[in-house]
Amino acid sequence: MVFDQSLGVIRMRYRFGVDIGGTSVKAGVVDENYRILSRGSVRTPDTFEKSMKAVADLLFDLAGQMGLSESDFSCAGFGVPCSVIPGTGRLVFANNTNWKNVSIKNELSKYLSIPLYFGNDANCAVIGETLAGAARGKKHVVMITLGTGVGGGIIIDGKMFAGGDGLGAEIGHMPIVYNGIRCTCGLSGCFECYASATALIRQTKEAMAAHPESALNAWAKEHGEVNGQTAFDCAKEKDPAAMEVIDQYTSYIATGLGGLVNIFRPELFIIGGGVSNAGDALLDPVRAKLSSYTLAYDVVGSAPVQKAILGNDAGMIGAAYLDQMN
Amino acid sequence: MVFDQSLGVIRMRYRFGVDIGGTSVKAGVVDENYRILSRGSVRTPDTFEKSMKAVADLLFDLAGQMGLSESDFSCAGFGVPCSVIPGTGRLVFANNTNWKNVSIKNELSKYLSIPLYFGNDANCAVIGETLAGAARGKKHVVMITLGTGVGGGIIIDGKMFAGGDGLGAEIGHMPIVYNGIRCTCGLSGCFECYASATALIRQTKEAMAAHPESALNAWAKEHGEVNGQTAFDCAKEKDPAAMEVIDQYTSYIATGLGGLVNIFRPELFIIGGGVSNAGDALLDPVRAKLSSYTLAYDVVGSAPVQKAILGNDAGMIGAAYLDQMN
Q: Where are the domains of chain B?
C-alpha cells in the first residue's frame, strides 16, 4: 500500500508476475497478499523480439482490464525456463526456446518503464510456494519440479539462493549416476535423467518391453499413450512391473534429495511439477527411502517432503516477488 | 585491537583456534591478521571429559607461554571432526571419536569463561582458507578435503554455510553413484566412497590385483605399503594401470564437483587434505574433466580449482574466526 498525495488516498500497489515458457507466456496481476487478481496468457511467438513485444502487450491488456496503468505497478518479475543473469536479464542457457545470450531486460525496457526483475522459473516457483504456498513461513526450503526436466529452487535463510553468480541451483543437473545416461544438457548421469517425467515415461516403457504381460501394456493400449500417470495407476492395482517402476523411480528421487538434505538441511522439501499430482503414491515411498540417504538420520532426522500446492501460480507469484527475495 | 582504559594503551586481542581430531588436538593462538603466533598439541585422551580437560589445559599453557591470560583472548573456536550444533556445541555425529550427543560447550565451560564457538572441521578449514589462504578475498567458495573421508566446507556471500540447522555442507555424503558402495556412514554411493584417500588406496589395490605386472606392485613392494601417493608416483612414470587409476579417480572427483558447480556456482573450488599434495597431477585432470560436468560450460564457464595452501593451519585459523563467519 502507498499513500497517494495528489488524491489524498491510500492505493494498492500491484505487481506483474510473468511465467515465460517455451510454448506459452502466462502473466498475472499480483497483489500484496500474494493473490493473483487477474491473469492471461499468449502463445510464445517464434522470435525473441516478437515474444518480448507479446509479453509487454499482455501486461498492458491485463492492467487495462482492471482499469490500471503501468504506474499502479511497483515492478514486473519474469520467470524464464533457463539460466538468467539476474541483474542484466541476460539469458545464458535456454534449452527450450533457442534464446541464448540475449538480454530480456534490454528488450522489455523498450516497452516497460517500471523496475524489471528476472529469475529462473524453478527459482520463481520456490519463492511462490515459500511466500504463499506449501512452505509458507519456512526459512530453509528446497523445491524440485518433476516435469519434462527437473527444476530446482532453493531458499536459504528466507532468501532465494541461485549460486554465486545467479546461475546456480540447477539441482536437475547434479549427477547421481556416475557415467550415467546422457542428458539433453550434454552432461551425463544428471538427476533429471532419472527423476523427470520424461525419465519416468522411459522407465515405464522399459518395463513394458521387459514384461509384455504387465498391466502397463493394457493401460497404454486403453489410453493410447504412456505418460507419467501410467505406472502410478497400475501400481495402485498391484501390477508387479508397475510397482517395480515406482520403486526404482522413487529411489532415484530419494538419492537426489539425499545429497541435498546432507548439504542444505532444509526445513522442508517441496515436490512440484506434473508427476507430483500422483500425491502420496509418489511422496510416501520418497519419504521412506530418504532416511536411507540422510546422514545420521537416527540422530538428526531428515526433512519432511510435501507436495507443492500452488501449481502454475507459484511461478507467477514468485516472479512478482523476485525483488524481495534476493 | 582494543583500547585498554586502565592502562591507557591499545592492546592486541587474541583468539584461540582449536582443531579437535580423533587422535590429537591441535591449538593455536591466532592474532587479528590470521597469524598463528604460538601452537601446541596433545594426544586425544580416551574419554570425552578427559579430552575437554586436556583441551583447556593446552589453551592455558599456550597463553601462559606468551605471558597472556584468558582475558587477553576474545574467544575460543573449536573445529570438531563431526556434525555439531553450532549454538550449543552439541556433537550429533562423531564417527571417529565415539562422542555422540554430548555438549562440548557445557564441558569446556567448566574451565573457560570466554565465548566459545563450534564448527565442523571442514567448515573451519574453508573459513581459514577464505580469510587467509587460497580463497582470500573470495565470497563464494566450495572446499573439499580428501583424507580418510571427504570433508566439505561452503562459503556463500562471505559467510559459512552449514545448512538450515548447522548440520549440513556434508559434501562427502552426497551420492554420486546410485546404489553404489556402502559408506562408513551407513549410506551408499557417497562422494566420499570414491574420492577420499581411502577410496584412492582401494582403487589402487584393485588395479594392482588386476595388473600384477604394473609398476604399482613394484612401488608397493619397495615402500612396504600402498598409500594415496602410489598411483600418482607410478602414473608419472607412465605406468598404464596407474594412469587408469588416476583417470578414474579424478573422474569421480569431477563428478562430485560438477554437481556442486551447477548448484553453488562458486568463484573457486579448493581441494585440501592429504591427496591434494599431489598438486597439479591431481588438479589438472580434475579441471579438464569438470567442464564435462558443468551446465552450459561453453557459455558460462566453470569455477577454477586450486590447492589449499594452509594445510592443517586452516582449521585452527578458521576455528578462531567462527564467530565472524556465521
A: 2-129+314-324, 138-308
pLDDT digit string, tens, across residues B239-277: 999 999 999 999 999 999 999 999 999 999 999 999 999
CATH topology match: A2-129+314-324 vs A138-308 = yes
**Closest partner residue to B170 among A93, A154, A262, by Cβ?**
A262
Dump pLDDT digits (tens) for B155-167. Answer: 999 999 999 999 9
Q: Does domain B2-129+314-324 have CATH number 3.30.420.40?
A: yes
| Exposed/middle/buried for residue A27 (C-beta within 10 Å: 0-12, 13-18, 19+) | buried
Whether CATH 3.30.420.40 fits B138-308: yes
If phi > 0 it is left, if psi is from -120 to 50 it is alpha, else beta; for residue B189 that is left
Mutate to test the interface with A, among B98, B183, B264 (most CBs of A within 10 A): B264
CA atoms B158, B159, B164, B167: torsion sign: positive
Res. A89 pLDDT band, cuts 50 70 90: confident
User: Hey, which bits of A122-262 come out as E strands?
Assistant: 141-146, 150-156, 159-161
Enter the C-alpha cell of residue A101.
545470450
Supply the DSSP symbol for A109: T
Q: Do A194 and B178 touch (CB under 8 A)?
A: yes
Count other Cβ atoms within 10 Å, centred on residue A10.
Answer: 9
pLDDT at B95: 61
Of residues A100, A170, A188, nearest to B263 (C-beta) = A170
Whether the pLDDT of residue A5 is over 90: the answer is no
Cα end-to-end distance, chain A, whole Å: 21
Q: Sign of the CA dihedral A312, A315, A317, A318?
A: positive
Q: A151, A154, A189, A157: which is closest to A172 by C-alpha?
A: A151
User: From the CA of A310, how many Å to the nearest CA of chain B?
Assistant: 24
* Nearest-CB residue to B164 (from A100, A167, A265): A265
In angstroms, rounded to a whole number, what is the distance separating the alpha carbons of residues B139 and B131? 10
User: Taking CB atoms and an 8 Å cutoff, what residues of chain B touch A179?
Assistant: 251
Confidence of residue A91 (pLDDT cuts 50, 70, 90): confident
As beta bridge partners, residue A3 has: A10
| CA B213/CA B109 separation, integer angstroms | 58
Residue among B105, B7, B100 nearest B56 (CA): B105
- Whether the pTM exceeds 0.90: the reply is yes
- Beta strand residue intervals within chain A, DSSP E: 2-4, 9-11, 14-20, 24-30, 36-43, 73-80, 83-85, 90-93, 102-103, 116-120, 141-146, 150-156, 159-161, 268-272, 305-307
pLDDT mean over B137-151: 96
Least confident of B72-86, B87-101, B206-220: B87-101
Q: Half-sphere exposure of residue B262, counting CA atoms within 13 Å on the CB side? A: 31
- Contact A265/B161, CB-based, under 8 Å? no
Q: How far is CA A36 from CA A61, A158, A178, B206, B289, in A?
A: 15, 22, 43, 61, 46
Contact: B263, A163; criterion CB under 8 Å: yes
Q: Is the pLDDT of residue A156 over 60?
A: yes
For residue B220, the tally of other CB atoms under 10 A from its CB is 18
Asked if residue A264 has pLDDT above 90, the reply is yes
A64 pLDDT higher than 70: yes
